[in-house]
Amino acid sequence: FQLVTQFRQAMDTGQVEVHYQPKVALPERRVVGAEALVRWSHPEYGRLDPDEFVPLVEATGLVDALTSFVMECALIKIREWLDGGLRMSVAVNLSVRNLADENFPDHVAEALARHDIPPELLTFELTESSVMADPERALPVLRRLHAMGVVLAVDDFGTGYSSLAYLRQLPVDEVKIDKSFVLGMGTDLGDMAVVRSIVELGHSLDLAVVAEGVEDDAARDLLVEMGCDVAQGYLISRPLSEERFEAWLQART
Ligand code: G
Ligand code: G
Ligand code: MN
Ligand code: NA
Question: What homologous superfamily is domain 24-35+63-252 in, according to CATH?
């Protein structure tokens, strides 16, 4: 598909940008970091969201280049903040191919060293389905990343065939409650029960719990009451371009 061949060039010519969505600690709302979310401004088709091109890029070897690109942007950002006295983390989404790549941890170690970044400031988000696609290959990669001190988060938790027994065996540090449950929490007691159970489960396994899709004060207040650790969502901010993220940070402090 033509879009895929255009993508490599798009990364080289600045059409592909990383946007940042802030994550805040609960209850005090201190900014702890951001999730890196890729955007493509296509000369013909305009702004493309990841759902429109990441699956295509994932179907090819180009996803390695995408992950490297996003990680590189993230590490430059973290270094910039550190130099300015700010200690904030960035979360990068991994694709199933990264988890199947036995060289990926070396590549990450090299990049962290090159930018002189403490590994705990880099988070990788992975879905359970990306692990389950080929656990024999994914687990050694995850174990090495975890041993290096990089933070691992299970994204979209609660969807797919999440097995609680399985979560216990994954070398991860964090769960992100899927936004569908957080969005539904205000009107659906079932969703509220799911969110509450994930917070409890996460804490009983010693994991940090992040809620995504936090859109209003009511959701935030409920999450505080449940003891959720970190919130991400439109209530705090939409994903922002680098420039707008910096302006947003300035305006808060
Ligand atoms: O805002 P949003 O439309 O950005 O993101 C949609 C989906 O695209 C998210 O579920 C996210 O996991 C995925 N995504 C965003 N950025 C990246 C990226 O850099 N790499 C991968 N593999 N997926 C991404
Ligand atoms: O990687 P992941 O699936 O978690 O990507 C997060 C997705 O959720 C992105 O598409 C992002 O734009 C979107 N998102 C972030 N915050 C909110 C929110 O508060 N509400 C909704 N509906 N979507 C959100
Ligand atoms: Mn994510
Ligand atoms: Na998610």
Answer: EAL domain (3.20.20.450)
